[in-house]
Amino acid sequence: MTPLQPVRNPALGMWLMAAVAWMFASHDVLSKTLILVLPVIFVAWVRYLVHTGLATLAILRNPAPGRFRTQRPWLHLLRAACLLADSLTFLFGLTHVPLAESTALVFLAPAFVTLLSPLLFGVCASRYQWLSVAVGFIGVLVIINPASDAFSLWMLFPLATAFFFALYQLLTQLAGDTDSPPVCSFYVGLFCTLLLSLVVPFYWAWPTAIEWGLLIALGGMGLCAHFLLAKSYSHASSVVLAPLGYLQIVFAALYGVVLFGDRPGLWSLAGMALVCASGLVVYAKRAGPAVAAGPEAQA
C-alpha cells in the first residue's frame, strides 16, 4: 500500500505565498519601528531568543530519541554567523535607507546565489540565469544611483544583506542533506542567540511593556512566515510561487508611504522593477513543460 500523499492545491499555495510576502514586509516594518527606540543589537537578540524558544517547543513535540542531534554543528554555527550578518546589516541599513529600497536591494540575493553556486556545488548557471544576474545588478545601480547627490554608503548595507542571505541559503541547502528543517531552525536560532549574548550587555535596554510585546511578536512573526512558506511549497512548485515573493517589495513600498512617509522616486521605482524582472526572467524560462516534472525547490 502506498502512503497517502497530501492533497495539493496550487491556488491555496499562491495565497499562502502572498501572505508570506505580506508577513515578511510586516516583520520588517516592525523591526524598523523598534530600532527607532531600541538598540539594533538588543532587538536582534530578543528576536532570535524568541525564535529559539519557539523552535525548541516545535522539536519537543516530536517524541523520537535524539531529536536535537546534529551531525554537523560547525556548519550550523557558520549558518548562524551568515544569518546574523544578514539580520544586522539589514537592521542597520533600515536606520538610513527607506524600507522599499532596502527590500528591493535584498532581492538581489538570487543573483548572488547564481554567482556562488559554482563555487560550492559546481553548478553551472544557464544563460538565462546570467541574464537575470545582469538585469538585477543594473536594477541595483539604478536604485542606489552612485552618481547622484542622494547616494549614501548606507545603501551598501542592504546589498551586504543580500550577499549574506545568499550564503545562508546555500549553507542551509548543505545542512538539509543531514538534518531536518526543525533541527536546522533550532540550531541557527540557538547559535545566533549565543553569539548576540556576548555583546548584548553593552547594548542593554529596558523596553516598556508594549515594546516587549512588539519584540515577542517580531520573533513569532518571523518563525510564522517561514512556516507558511513551507506550507505554500507543499501545495505548489517554486515555478508558480517564487515570483509571488516579489510582492514583498510592493507591500514594503506601501508600508513606507503610509507609515514613514517614504515615497520612492521614479528612478527607485524603475530599479525595483528591474530587480523584480531579474527574478522573473529565470522563472519565465523554467515555466516550460520540460521543467514541470522536475524536482521542486525546498523551502
TrEMBL record:
The keyword Isomerase does not apply. The keyword Transmembrane helix applies. InterPro entries: EamA_dom (IPR000620), EmrE-like (IPR037185). SUPFAM superfamilies: Multidrug resistance efflux transporter EmrE (SSF103481). Keywords: Membrane, Transmembrane, Transmembrane helix. It comes from the Bacteria. Residues 12-144, 153-282 form the EamA domain. The chain crosses the membrane at residues 12-30, 36-60, 80-99, 105-123, 130-147, 153-171, 183-206, 212-229, 241-260, 266-284. This is DMT family transporter. It comes from Pseudomonas quercus.
